[in-house]
Write a structure and sequence with these properties.
CATH architecture of the largest domain: Alpha-Beta Complex
Radius of gyration: 20 Å
CATH superfamily of the largest domain: DHBP synthase
Number of strands: 16
Structural class: alpha/beta
Bound molecules: threonylcarbamoyladenylate, magnesium ion
Largest sheet: 11 strands, mixed
CATH topology of the largest domain: DHBP synthase
CATH class of the largest domain: Alpha Beta
Distance between the termini: 49 Å
Order of helices and strands: EHEEHEHHEHEHEHEEEHEEHEEHEHE
């Protein structure tokens, strides 16, 4: 049985604190524990211990060449971990930490487990904006390595139930703080060069980064999934339901026509749409991810709906597309990966 600590997000509440202390002690004993962050649930371990970090890779079935993000609860922890803090990184931290932003730094040698950084001389660090995550890290008094708490390849978990589905029998426990807010992972930004580069779009948008540091570029390999991405994790298939997903670069009528075609062949077809249009489709399963007029709701609901298709018996899924603006860039990046970059342009 997996241990499930239910906590109030008001961590100063006396009811929650014993659970937080319990989870922190387990991390200090070099075991792994899942906990909520503002983006998705993370699977935490002591980032200084090979033994602990190894347990993350084993539990997730994660390839060992994919480095982990290190989570901290206060800026003072940074000095121990990195060689220098570039000016752009300093500005971004001031603006967006705690928050869904991971910054890549030149790492200090000999502090973190080599397994965290997968042989790179850089390290990704973030300070999550979630009271439970911050309290656990603070209480553990350690830098905490934490990838998303899913089995490798699956959509990241946005509820404790998702974590249990994926990792029951593989980890000691999950701290359950309810649904996460943002719903997609942090933005990964490399500030070690002259212009900051987005290696993975996420909760902090390109526009928000540019407000603070001026020009920001996007790792070109993210488009079409071609070339070797600078963020090793971006090369793996990910987020995909069991049934193949096709993105439809067309109208709702086009989506309906594709569904009708498949159903006439005797297949079961699903549609991924938004509240505005969910009632208009005739298909075997229709899921709304959120509201098109507020892409934050789409980010919030995306992984839950991608997972939910696996509890249905659809053979194929057609998904509407979104503008690549604001958090839409992260939504489309995840949808393209879920679809293996298959796009139908009717
Ligand atoms: O929102 C998030 O970032 C969540 C929560 C739990 O904090 N974590 C998360 O971790 O998404 P993970 O391991 O699923 O994704 C980490 C990504 C991968 O694409 C990895 O390759 C990249 O960050 N990454 C980590 N360290 C890196 C480094 N030194 N250089 C380039 N990319 C790095
Ligand atoms: Mg992940």
């Amino acid at each position: 049985m997996i241990k499930r600590w239910i906590v109030e997000n008001d961590v100063d509440n006396k009811e929650s604190y014993p659970q937080i202390v319990d989870a922190a002690r387990i991390l200090q004993q070099n075991e792994v524990v899942a906990f909520p962050t503002e983006t998705v649930y993370g699977l935490g371990a002591n980032a200084k211990s090979d033994e602990a970090v190894d347990k993350i890779f084993k539990a997730k079935g994660r390839p060992s060449d994919n480095p982990l993000i290190v989570h901290i609860s206060n800026k003072n922890q940074l000095k121990e971990l990195v060689e220098e803090v570039p000016e752009a990184a300093e500005k971004l931290m001031t603006a967006y930490w705690p928050g869904p932003l991971t910054l890549i730094f030149q790492k200090k040698d000999g502090v973190l487990s080599e397994k965290v950084t997968a042989g790179l001389d850089s390290v990704g660090i973030r300070m999550p904006d979630h009271p439970v995550a911050l309290a656990i890290i603070e209480e553990a008094g350690l830098p905490i390595a934490a990838p998303s708490a899913n089995r490798s390849g699956k959509p990241s978990p946005t509820t404790a139930q998702h974590v249990i589905e994926d990792l029951e029998g593989r980890i000691i426990g999950v701290v359950d703080g309810g649904e996460t807010g943002v719903g997609v992972e942090s933005t990964v930004v490399d500030c070690t060069g002259t212009i900051p580069v987005i290696l993975r779009p996420g909760g902090v948008t390109k526009e928000q980064l540019e407000e603070v540091v001026g020009e920001v570029s996007v790792d070109p390999s993210l488009k079409e999934g071609k070339g070797a991405p600078k963020s090793p994790g971006m090369k793996y298939t990910h987020y995909a339901p069991d049934a193949p997903v096709w993105l439809v670069d067309g109208t709702r009528e086009d989506v309906q026509r594709l569904v009708d075609e498949k159903r006439s062949e005797g297949l079961k077809a699903g549609v991924l749409t938004t509240d505005e249009f969910a009632g208009d489709y005739r298909a075997d399963v229709v899921f709304s991810v959120g509201r098109r007029d507020d892409l934050n709701t789409v980010a919030h609901g995306l992984y839950d709906k991608l997972r939910a298709f696996n509890n249905s018996d659809v053979d194929i899924i057609f998904a509407e597309m979104f503008p690549e603006e604001g958090v839409g860039l992260a939504i489309m990046n995840r949808l393209q990966k879920a679809a293996g970059y298959r796009v139908i342009k009717p």
